[in-house]
Amino acid sequence: MFKLALASLWNRRGSVWLTMVAIAISTLLLLGVERIRVQTQENFANTISGTDLIVGARTGSTELLLSSVFHIGNLSNTLSWQSYQHLRELPGVSWHIPMAMGDSVQGLPVVATTDALFDYFQYGNKRHLAFAAGDHFASSDTLTVAVLGYEAAQQLQLNVEDSLTIAHGTGEISFSQHDAHPFTVVGVLARTGTPIDRSVFVPLAAQGLVHGDYLPEDTSGAHDHDHQHDEHNHDHDGADEDHAETPPVYTLSAVLLGLENRALALRLQRTINTYKGEALSAIMPGLALQNFWRTLNLFEKALMSISVLVVITGLLGMLTTLLASLRERRREMAVLRSIGAGPVTILGLLVLEALLVTLAGITLGTVALFGVLFLGTDLLQAKLGIQVAASWLTGRELYLLGAILVAATLLSFYPAWRAYKNALADGLTVKL
């Protein structure tokens, strides 16, 4: 029967090929949407780990998460330096990473921070940032230095000791360049697969210098917890003495906090949210990510529904092809019945043909998926910031392919039943 099915398909190879291509395209779309959905969720989840709280001015959790972690969008409100000092003195705080945003380099976000970012920030499975070249801010004696993410360095075509100029605002085109203060690249981070790769990092004090803000002495960052908690008590000298009675005017976008005990997170979150000195919002990154994905649930379902509809369209095309070929194959079915082929043989032949066409389409679509992933990974990473691995099919993807095969089998029973029913009735009569 297998050879007979192959011979029959080869005899109708033109229409069979078109049907197979339609199923392949629908399979490619279905698996592609599923893989991008899963990989995007994993990439988002791997962007930050080990950070217990993210604190910013009073705003929504999604806005604060996207701005501070993914560097998407701009926060309308900022957090004062006095509030930052209050946060880092809270009992149970192990480390703190201040962040200020609002500038860019050719559309790439500039994040003003301290060396604490390179010491404490973690991503993925609690992996620390590593340098592909150079070192952190403190490795240089000058203030106007920068550390580039891996992709930022490639896009800007810069390396250690090269110079760059930051611009005010986050657009790719800016009419306000800080030309008076060029920055020297002192380090390039290793690839992380997170928004870190597409970011430019500068010292807080350097950004304050560029914007003409007064900064306290301790904004250069700290490498250990004790120093972070003690440095603000140092006396200012030189130019800082002129500001002894002047409170800092520098503001922050967000602060990442690591706690000595994660069990303290809820209590500290409540303490920060009810802080009377300033309206603040403290969020837990993991919980905020879950809420963010809930907001995208409808969009995910819409994409998957479209993919399923495309698959159904491909299978209906196969059904149409089988039904259209029945008139041409009536004599073939009648001859098979006349030589002793039973109902099971007739049914099995058409079902087998449908399965072979579907299986070939699925195989072609899967091969096309891996080809697209292999050739288009860099493009997806560059355009969408999404890393989609060309890994073997997951259990859910195999389940989806199995569902396509089952659906094809069920659909093929109708033309098979029609072929069996009409075989002896009119198959031996020549139609003029």
What is the terminal separation in angstroms? Answer: 31 Å
Largest sheet: 11 strands, mixed
| Percent helix | 40-55%
Show unreliable segments. 214-248
| Mean pLDDT value | 80
- How much is the radius of gyration in Å? 31 Å
Number of beta-strand segments: 15
What would you call the shape? elongated
Summarize the helix and strand pattern as letters. HHEHEHEEHEEEEHEEEEHHEEHEHHHHH
Structural class: alpha+beta
Number of domains: 2
Total DSSP helices:
14
Our estimate of the beta-strand percent is 15-25%
Overall description:
It is a single chain. It is built from 14 helices and 15 strands. The chain has 432 residues and is α+β, with helices and mostly antiparallel strands. It has two domains: 2-44 and 297-425, no CATH class; 53-283, no CATH class. The strands form three sheets. Strands 1, 3, 4, 7, 8, 9, 10, 11, 12, 14 and 15 form an eleven-stranded mixed beta sheet that branches. Strands 2-13 form a two-stranded antiparallel ribbon. A hairpin with a 2-residue loop joins strand 3 (93-105) and strand 4 (108-113). Helix 13 (343-384) packs antiparallel against helix 14 (395-426). The longest helix is centred in the last third of the chain and has 42 residues, at 343-384. The chain is elongated and about 95 Å long. Residues 215-244 are annotated as: Disordered. It is found in: Cell membrane. Residues 305-421 form the ABC3 transporter permease C-terminal domain.
List the helices and strands and how they pair.
Elements: H1 2-11, H2 13-46, E1 53-57, H3 61-68, E2 79-80, H4 81-88, E3 93-105, E4 108-113, H5 116-120, E5 122-123, E6 127-128, E7 131-134, E8 145-148, H6 150-156, E9 163-164, E10 167-168, E11 183-189, E12 200-203, H7 204-211, H8 225-230, E13 251-252, E14 254-259, H9 265-273, E15 280-283, H10 285-295, H11 297-326, H12 330-338, H13 343-384, H14 395-426
Parallel strand pairs: 4-12, 8-11
Antiparallel strand pairs: 1-14, 1-15, 2-13, 3-4, 3-10, 3-14, 5-6, 7-11, 8-12, 9-11
Helix pairs in contact: 1-13, 2-11, 2-13, 11-13, 11-14, 12-14, 13-14
